[in-house]
Amino acid sequence: MRGILNKVRSFFRLNARRRSLFFQVVFLSLYRGVLVFFNSPLASSERMYQQDAVGLNGPISEDQMALIADIAAAVRLGVKYIPWLNVCRHQAWQAIKLLRRYKIPYSYHVGLKKIPTNGKREAHAWVIAGGYFISGRCRLDEYLEIKF
């Protein structure tokens, strides 16, 4: 009981924007689950990125950098507290949706682990904005990026 109370207290210590972004991440996670269930092409991070491929570069303001930090924190909180499957590709989709909503330039990446684990190739997806990982934090030198 004490653990739950501590989590509730720490949640309310977050600023209002981070709380709001966390709820948006939870909603987006549910929404993507519905899209995947109905086999919708809208559930594809790759499709969204290809649509945004034009105009992804540009200067990032200080306000946008603060928002980038808040979005990254909300995605990390979602990873920690969403009780259903929320793997790197799902997190990337959530991050892209939020970054698009706030018109923040980003880059989406997919890679294969260079050294297979247990004989199996491992894929990973991540999003970077303003030079920071928004989702899928990893060591880039361990992955061979797939271009699409």
TrEMBL record:
InterPro entries: McjB-like, McjB_C. Residues 58-144 form the Microcin J25-processing protein McjB C-terminal domain. It holds the Pfam family Transglut_core3. It comes from the Bacteria. The chain crosses the membrane at residues 21-38. Keywords: Membrane, Transmembrane, Transmembrane helix. This is Microcin J25-processing protein McjB C-terminal domain-containing protein. It comes from Lunatimonas lonarensis.
